[in-house]
Amino acid sequence: MTAAVPGIPGLRKAAAAVLALGLSAALAACSGDGGKGGSDPKLSVTGAYVSQPPMTDMAAGYLTVRNAGGGADELTSVTTPLASEVTLHTTKGTRMKQVSSLEVPANDRVELSTGGDHLMLTNLSHRPKVGEKVSFTLHFATSAPIEIKVPVEPTTYRPKD
Prior knowledge:
By secondary structure, the protein is mostly beta strands. The longest helix is centred in the first third of the chain and has 20 residues.
C-alpha cells in the first residue's frame, strides 16, 4: 500500500490519467500508415503522351500513375474525345492482352510505356498531329477521376528516364 501525498488529493489518479493519455497519443502516432500518406490512395499522373499514329484509326497512349498514399487503387478506364474506345493492355513477353483494370499499388506507381502496359485508342475522330494536345480522363476504382492534357509526340519518341 502506498501513502497518499498530503495536501494533494487525487494526485496519483491524475498522474495515471495523464500517463494513459500520453501513451494513447504515442501509440496512435506509431500505428496506422507509418507516415506514408494515409490509408487512402493519393494519385497523380506524369509523363503522359500519345504517339502520333501511323494509321488513321488507332493510336497508343502512355503515362505513369503515381500513388503517394497508403492505399492501393485501380485504373479502370480512360476516356478521350479523340477515340470512341480506349482499352487497357498489358504486355508479357511478346503477348499483348486487354485487361479490365491496372493496379496502382500503395506508395508505388503503374507505368504505361512502349513495350509494356499501355492504352489503345481505337476509332479515332481524327489522326492527331505532333504538338497537338489531347484531353484524357482517367477513372479509378476508388479515387476521383483525373483530367489531363496529353501531348502528341512523334511515332519514334522515347521519353527520357
